[in-house]
Design goal:
Elements (H helix, E strand, L loop, with lengths): L18 E5 L4 H12 L3 E6 L2 H13 L3 E6 L5 H15 L4 E4 L15 H28 L4 E6 L12 H21 L4 E8 L5 H9 L3 H7 L9 H12 L10 E4 L6
Length: 263
Amino acid sequence: MNDTSITSTTSPGLLAGKVAFVTGAGRGIGAAAARLFAREGARVLLAARTEAQLKAVTEDIRAAGGTAEYVRCDLADPASVRAAVDRAVELYGRLDVAFNNGATAQQPGPMDRLPEADFDHVLAVNLKGPWLAMSAEVAAIRATAGRGAIVNNSSVGSLMGNPWLPVYGAAKRAVNSLTASAAVTYGPEGIRVNAIAPGTTLTEMIDHWEANSPGIIDQLTAQTPLGRAADPHEIAEAAAWLLSDRASYVTGVVLSVDGGSRA
């Protein structure tokens, strides 16, 4: 048998033909998602605050044969969020899917010790930011692709009492509610909205928590049936599936991706 008689069985990528917008794409889960979405066939617009990180991830994607551009975006700035979403349409002519991953951490500790200014910042980025992004994304999908999907990155810490990160957890629980409301509101238009709730994941955010609370990673993984923390790409895989047409009958879900910690 010679090579010319072999028929390729390679299937199209999970997100082939789609334009994807990813916030918090300069590092961690967002960077892993941007790389994965591009490998799965999407044209990707990366958004975050730090240009150097965005540029590095974008260049990695292009070097691997993917299509990517980036735009600086501050989730606490409404005009910046709207401009970033609009940029996807300017670049690629449409928007099909979006992963609202960008977030900010809080200083770990009891809620009565968190300064009011920190409370306001956490809510501005982690709750108002996704609301602004979803509003702009729905408008862009509606005006171009017509149908699409959005995934919001929540946290397993939103599903229970969270004495270590109470305001972060509260903001993420509110994102779960916004996700459900958006799913009901936009489902009739063919726009699906879901969330993922990652467990302990090896990102700079968890490194910061470990530095402030030594031993917290070991403590959390001890409570995880799979016995380890997640790699960012494992969280990105769940987001990619929810955004893909393979999840065409899934909306309004908060999917735990937590190694079984909430089982």
